[in-house]
Amino acid sequence: MKIIGVTGGIGSGKTTIINYIKSKGFTVYIADNAGKNVMQKPEIIKQVNELFNHQVLLPTGLLDRSKIASLVFNDTILLQKLNNIVHPAVGLDFEEFLKENVSQKIIFKETAVLFESDLYHDCFATILITAPIEERINRVVKRDGIAREQVLNRIKNQLSDEEKAKLATYVVENVDILTAFKSIDDIIDKILIN
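User: That's the sequence. What structure does it adopt?
Assistant: Structure tokens below.
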């Protein structure tokens, strides 16, 4: 089985690319979705709530993810502590996903922190989705309805595309979607041959 890591900074359009890969019939694991599911498990809720001094629970007993996001985006130490709780749980979830899909020759794994968390070492190949910074900012402002400054803060908390590109096997610039899809097709052809 070949694990192909797919990543990209906020607003790069990696969700669009992942949906395209799925439409081609490939099995895809989306770490962000897994992270949301993991954060609903009682043991994770307990640990995260304790980390935030019991201030991030909703009346439903679930975690207030938007409050958590606002607290960690300006506090890299707190973000790291949160990641130390959530990432290992997502890692275990991915191992279960692999067992459930053991017959697949290729699994695409989408994760925003592929390079930041050294997960790329476990991949046969990696694909970095990029886009010009202004394009990324405009996409996120439009999509999430947040201020430009908030998007810039999130971008600053991620490795730059230049740093990621040094580690990536393939880089796909996602400006013209049809060109990006063609690049993905070419990459998949190369992976299938190897």
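Residues 76-100 form the longest helix (25 residues).
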